[in-house]
Amino acid sequence: MEYNSMIIMALINCSECSKEVSDKASICPNCGNPINDIIGVNKEKGSSWGCMKTFFFLLVLFGIGVPVVNWLTSDGKVESSTVNHSELLAFIYAEDCVKSRLKSPSTAKFPNARERKSSTTYKGNGSYEINSWVDSQNGFGATIRSNFTCVVKFDGTKVRCESVLVY
After folding, report:
1. Is residue 110 within 8 Å of residue 104, measured between CB atoms?
2. Which residue has better confidence, 90 or 52?
3. How many Cβ atoms sit within 10 Å of the Cβ of residue 152?
């Protein structure tokens, strides 16, 4: 005997009596509730294509929309290739300069953003002076607090530390 096709049946729970019923049945043999309603609800719940379609739509929308909006709002002006500078950016550059002078730079802990901003002073002409502190381990593994002064200079596309003093 040869089987050309296999019939697969699944058991589902009836929404009325909660008894197991074949998904091929048209009504529940226990209570008479229509099974097609249950299968339709289960198929809608189990379908992930709606979520996938929404995800891909949003991906395409942001992938194309954001560059188009940026292009439309640029007024056709070509932005200069200068580095935008701020107190926080100057502090981040100062951190790198200070870390290069520490015994254990991976253990360095600097102040929070509010304190960083308050310890940074704009001196004009793209120069910032940072007077702050860093906690780091010394050569013996003890964590100590050191003060530092650093001058960071933004010059076109270049940024440099003009002076660093850790004390």
Report:
1. no
2. 90
3. 27
Judged on CB neighbours under 10 Å (0-12, 13-18, 19+), 60 is exposed
Reply yes or no on whether the pLDDT at 21 is more than 80: yes
Distances (CA, A) of 12 to 17, 32, 106, 133: 12, 15, 58, 66
Top-confidence residue, 83 or 143:
143
d(CA 4, CA 10): 20
Q: Higher confidence at residue 151 or residue 51?
A: 151
Model confidence at 50: pLDDT above 80? no
pLDDT at 161: 93
What residues does each domain of the chain span? Answer: 11-73, 87-166
User: Could you tell me the sign of the dihedral formed by the alpha carbons of 74, 75, 78, 82, in that order?
Assistant: negative
Asked whether 92 and 166 are in contact (CB, 8 A), the reply is no
State how far the Cα of 147 lies from the Cα of 134, in Å rounded to an integer. 6
First to last CA, the chain: 92
The helix/strand/coil state of 115 is helix
